[in-house]
Design brief:
nine-stranded mixed sheet; 10 helices; 13 strands; two-stranded antiparallel ribbon; alpha/beta
Length: 343
């Protein structure tokens, strides 16, 4: 798609007609036509999404994918078809606000080292709260547990402006991810084996190791419907979260940490499965076991990816990759807010 625009706002859709009807008006209203184009990449929807778009939003461009490729491969295929210096991966259930493009694009244009940026992400349903998937920028602890400024595990903070400073982070949320198009394609995009969940964390970690910076700029703000706590998730989502987290660790951990971290994660994962059982979520407990089995089956296929990652490492020391155990900090020391953690 040849264009003179600066940024392509790419919304991946699969049977999300109702979300687009609700939230596309804000994207159209607050995304200046002079610099941006709005694209819906449709993952083989069957809910009349495309006819609705043609009728209600005729200026929105459409990329038709023949089937549901999932979040990762869907975006990989879509972004190869756009021709702008920058892209925004935007969920269909996100409401944007006035000036939302300004600060992220300014950072990407000004700083060559910055590859990706996210805004402050607040809950659309409870607008004074941060949103679970991204909040004000993400980090990982020494055992691979993701958390954010504004959200640790299921503890979601109220936004009082406490994280309104720009910050380098380890990962930016895929709900609203600004990224340089050339970097996205050059560094391989999202890992399509992941299908969905944690693929943006894997991408950002990979970018960070290769010397790029990931930044959260709270001067830009969006509202995301998103998801909630792990206990309420479907077993399939639990499976993807646990398996993909292990794949991410296998790909990205340095050799000195890989063996002992994965061994300890075996224990921690089965503790999580036991907790699911105690809470009556036996299908989720089974999903954790299946995730671990699938992870071990995939290791032979991932050896080449790991080798490529480790050979491409430029940035060995990353302060955004935390050296403490988040479980210890949260459950034992009762540090339930980001600004209470060791900095």
């Amino acid at each position: 798609m040849r264009t003179n625009k600066k940024v392509a706002i790419v919304i991946l859709n699969w049977n999300g007609m109702a979300w687009m009807e609700k939230f596309l008006p804000s994207v159209l209203k607050y995304s200046p036509n002079a610099i941006s184009e709005i694209i819906v990449a449709d993952n083989g929807s069957t809910d009349n999404s495309l006819s609705m778009l043609s009728h209600k939003f005729p200026t929105v461009k459409i990329i038709r994918l023949e089937k549901n490729y999932g979040f990762a491969e869907g975006y990989n295929r879509a972004i190869k078809q756009v021709d702008t210096p920058y892209c925004v991966l935007l969920n269909s259930d996100v409401e944007v606000t006035e000036g939302w493009l300004d600060a992220p694009l300014a950072l990407l244009e000004k700083e060559e080292s910055i590859a990706a940026v996210q805004p402050k992400i607040l809950s659309e349903r409870n607008r004074h709260l941060f949103e679970y998937a991204g909040a004000c920028g993400g980090y990982i602890d020494k055992y691979g547990y993701p958390f954010c400024r504004g959200r640790i595990f299921q503890e979601i903070e109220t936004d009082h402006g406490q994280y309104d400073s720009q910050a380098d982070v380890l990962w930016a949320s895929g709900a609203c991810l600004f990224i340089k198009t050339e970097v996205y394609i050059k560094e391989g995009g999202l890992d399509n084996t992941f299908f969905a969940h944690q693929e943006e964390i894997d991408l950002c970690w990979r970018l960070r190791m290769r010397g790029y910076r990931i930044v959260c700029t709270p001067q830009s703000k969006v509202y995301h419907v998103g998801g909630g706590t792990l206990n309420s998730e479907s077993p399939h989502k639990t499976f993807l979260n646990f398996r993909n987290n292990l794949l991410m660790l296998y790909k990205n951990l340095p050799e000195k940490d890989l063996t002992w971290v994965l061994r300890l994660r075996t224990l921690l994962d089965y503790v999580a499965a036991f907790k699911f059982l105690l809470e009556g979520h036996w299908q989720n407990a089974i999903a954790v076991h299946k995730a671990r089995k699938n992870f071990h089956r995939l290791i032979p296929l991932y050896k080449s990816k790991r080798n490529e990652n480790q050979a491409s490492v430029i940035q060995k020391e990353m302060p955004e990759l935390k050296s403490y155990c988040l479980l210890w900090q949260f459950y034992i020391k009762r540090r339930i807010h980001y600004n209470e953690l060791p900095q």
